[in-house]
Amino acid sequence: SCVGLRNLLQGLSFCVRYYFRHNHLQTTCLYSKIKPKKCHILDCSGSTCTHMTVPPGSILPWRFFSCKEGTKVPSKRKQNTSITSSELSYKNLLKSEQENWNDISARYKAMITRIKEKLEELHKYTFNSGSPRIRFGENVYFEENGCIFLSKADDADEGNVDILFSTEDLGFSDAFIQRIRISPDQRYMAISLKSENSEEATCIIVKLGHFPVVEKVIPNVFSFEWATNDVLYYTSQKNLKCQNVFMTTFTNQKHTKLVYTEQDARFFVDIYCTKDRRFLTINSNSKTTSEVWLVDCRHPFKLPTLVQARTKGIIYHIEHRNDELYILTTYGEPAEYKLMKAPVASSGMENWQLVYALEEKTKLVDLEMFSDHCIMFLKNAGHLYLSVISFVSHSVQSIKLPTWACEFELESHPEHTTGTCYFQLTSPVHPPKHFAYSFKENNLIEQAVQEVPIITNCHTTRLLAKSKDETLVPITVFHNMNSKELHRKPLLVHVYGAYGIDLNMSFKEEKLMLIEEGWILAYCHVRGGGELGLSWHKDGCQHNKLKGLHDLKACIMLLHELGFSQPKYTALAAASAGGVLAGALCNTDPELIRAMVLQAPFVDVLNTMMKTHLPLTIEEQEEWGNPLAHEKCMKYIKSYCPYQNIKTQCYPSVFITAYENDQRIPLTGILQYVQKLRKAALDHASRTSKKGNRIPNIILDIQANGSHCDSSWEDSLNEVCSLYCTHPQQVG
């Protein structure tokens, strides 16, 4: 996404920038441990909301991207400190790229102004389209513009609210609210704040009342939950790892102590509270294996107890109801998620009993437990539906959701006895709509109709492309119904295909704008992602990674065959680990696309996976393999690695956004990739003398602010602008 535009946007108000940065209040539930979130998450009180789907056992949205060492940006030195030649070369290269981008972006000032105006127009319709609420008895907590508000559930007067917390008033104006937890008696509120430029968050505990008071500040916190009214458990994060669990009290005798430490570098620890608040679960997960310890909330000072010792290849997560543990697990055949149960007193795997198994090629997106029901949010063949399990009648009710919907977002309702489940549905071009499912009435209710007239002209199509090995690969396509001659329209293809994560298909204003401009949007759900369940991920990782590349090629070819654009009007977009497949296609089949747009791309798999000193490389061996231990693995990674396979040929235009503060994708690697790609493209141009032979634009925008794939108001503009920079003949 093109960011030299930041200076043009300084006049925009903070609230508008904040909205685009965080795009709604978000909430968390049990399945959030398996379900990825957007880079900016507001994970509230008892449940989580997210936007892609997380790989088995993984729980951290910002860990799904190839994790690599921090960017080595030259720091200020004392006068007598020498600078090495490599550092000087890096500094000069960085300066050269920044000057190049400043020169290019200056050409598009008029276009930027038009885009800004259009997005602000769309923003009028979508700003209040619905931020999830935390429903706590008669109280409703919600966040807006960096403030946390409290209102009454039945209060129709939207102006009658209390402000409980403000980031700006407390000097945190450059941070966003990531997670909220309200204590059971609503006397305390724990909030995590995170800045764009840091991986670590700060937890602030506020004592509520007529005059809320900051009680404690805890740095470097990842997850946290209230065990009781005045006992908080939290995990600490350091160097992208989270392996320690602490307990802190807010009684008369305040103290903090270490409760649990994970010794295995492949595992990452987080905390979850069961819906009935009976247990806190300490969850230790690798990409393929998990282990859970229970903290009894009635006795929070007792040592945690083990549910089931970790078993290689078995993932499980815990909920609780009526003295029984409900276990979401991959145990048994087939190795897909299933719901099982066991007595609390004898929780070993030998006592697990099947409650519900998913149908073949069905993706479990989320799960929420209630006193008499369990509701599962499922995805099958691109369609979303609910499965409602009644523990009273022992029946299962299936409800198909609107065909346009691509994403769920659960709203938080911490009381497990409630008779209604609230959630939102969205798509890349449909702002979130509120829905409620009533267990008593057994019906689905759309709570409000949001008037965004532009989206009524958007058509959704679902296709299946036949890959090289005959596997059918889903594609979701959006286009304006009024568009004529689709084969002449520009096409933006999206791909990810890693870590078992679904493509992010949540709403974004810039996607809606592209539809109005006549673009076609296509989302290729290739193997390596999670759209068709755990087997879909397994079939596209490690020694199967090339299958994802074959899937992507088949998808783009089918789109062209069916009359959705053509190669000279096609752009390919990917972020982070999605850069592996996008970059690989750019090497193997550059004639299929005219432009490629990458955000913080992972483009040098081989060299990165050979550096075991990096903080997350060892745990990522379960996704990419271990080239140091197996020569066959090294050769296989080398066969598709984007950086390793650049060659002298005609490349599409390329636009890359990188971040100076990215701790996961080293800026040095991206700089080397861009230099090598430019040289190959120029060498090809110099060797060919065909009339009209073009030299592709290969542009690198290095953002001084932000960290790995962090979203911001500028990004909403920049993604669109980058398409103009690389593909200008099709828009304007």
UniProtKB/TrEMBL annotation:
Where does this one sit in the cell?
Answer: Cytoplasm, Cytosol
| Stored SUPFAM superfamilies | alpha/beta-Hydrolases, Peptidase/esterase 'gauge' domain
For this protein, what is the EC number?
3.4.21.-
GO MF, one annotated term: serine-type endopeptidase activity
Domain Peptidase S9 prolyl oligopeptidase catalytic spans what residues? 506-683
> What InterPro entries has UniProt attached to this entry?
AB_hydrolase_fold, Pept_S9A_N, Peptidase_S9_cat, Peptidase_S9A, Serine_Peptidase_S9A
**Peptidase S9A N-terminal domain span:** 94-443
Q: Does the keyword Cytoplasm apply?
A: yes
An annotated GO cellular component of this protein is: Golgi apparatus
Task: Please give the Gene3D superfamilies that the UniProt record associates with this protein.
Answer: alpha/beta hydrolase, Prolyl oligopeptidase, N-terminal domain
UniProt keywords, alphabetically: Cytoplasm, Hydrolase, Protease, Serine protease
Q: Record's Pfam families?
A: Peptidase_S9, Peptidase_S9_N
Mention one GO biological process in which this protein takes part, according to its record. Answer: proteolysis
Q: Which family does it belong to?
A: Belongs to the peptidase S9A family.
Q: What does this protein do?
A: Serine peptidase whose precise substrate specificity remains unclear. Does not cleave peptides after a arginine or lysine residue. Regulates trans-Golgi network morphology and sorting by regulating the membrane binding of the AP-1 complex. May play a role in the regulation of synaptic vesicle exocytosis.
Protein name per UniProt: Prolyl endopeptidase
- Organism equals Eudyptes sclateri (Erect-crested penguin)
